[in-house]
Amino acid sequence: MRVVKIGGRAQTDPRLASALRDAWQDQPGEICLVHGGGDEISAMQRALGREASFVGGRRVTSQGDLELLRMVLSGIVNKRLVNTLVTAGISAVGISGEDGALLKAEPIDQASLGFAGKPLGVNVALLRTLMKAGYLPVISPVGYNAAGESGGLLNVNGDDAAAAIAVALKAEELLLIADVEGVRDASGETAASLNGEAVRELIAKGIAVGGMAAKLESAQAALAAGVPRVRIGDLSALSDAESGTFIIPSQSLAL
Questions:
Q1: Per the domain annotation, does 55 fall within a domain?
Q2: Is residue 252 in some structural domain?
Q3: Is residue 125 part of a domain?
Q4: What does the pLDDT look like over 36-56, one tens digit per residue?
Q5: CB neighbour class for 92 (10 Å; exposed up to 12, middle 13-18, buried from 19)
Q6: SS3 letters across 35-80
Q7: Which domain holds residue 58?
Q8: How does pLDDT run across 80-135, given as a tens digit for each residue?
Q9: pTM here?
Q10: Cβ contact 1:169 at 8 Å
């Protein structure tokens, strides 16, 4: 079982459909896909005269941004990706974290991040039903607000969502796909592996910032919760099991 998160920029790679088709054929019924779409949300915000802002790589989300978020992520991005995959011969089904309360969430810190959420639980039965029937779930990380009396939605960072889903599914691997080969270290080279101390140092020194810092934090959370194999890399990591940067436990000296 593998949970793969595809960042927004990686979705523009013309190799995406064939790479995912090959991976699906190698592991039919054993892949769950989570997608991002941050650049398109930011573009839509700017078109409406709003300015995107982030704290620690996570988007500050106002009440007014929620419907826009649902429209862009669960509508435009999700359905476009599903259409691409179906055209490539994959039985893909698009769902959001709101469907069947797939991704229950609560606000992280409403004072600083607004309606940005962190995962509380995952409806594993829904995912397993789809995968057992031969479908590839394609998940928009718009979460169901389980902390509010009236429900509603929360903006869950795609990497956080993928990590939570990987933990809930007891996945063998969490693969976070970006538009870079892996995580660059202080020398600017792509690191083969990073332990907890190295991750904290990269973030503290401002070498890993924004979205990459959020990816590293999500990767560490998945690892700490029992996911045995966590990587960050580009699209080639789908077919090359040794590609990308491995995030490893602090006590590990080797992969």
A1: yes
A2: no
A3: yes
A4: 988 899 898 889 888 888 887
A5: buried
A6: ECCHHHHHHHHHHCCCCCCEECCEECECHHHHHHHHHHHHHHHHHH
A7: 2-247
A8: 999 999 999 999 999 999 999 999 999 999 899 999 999 999 999 999 999 999 99
A9: 0.93
A10: yes
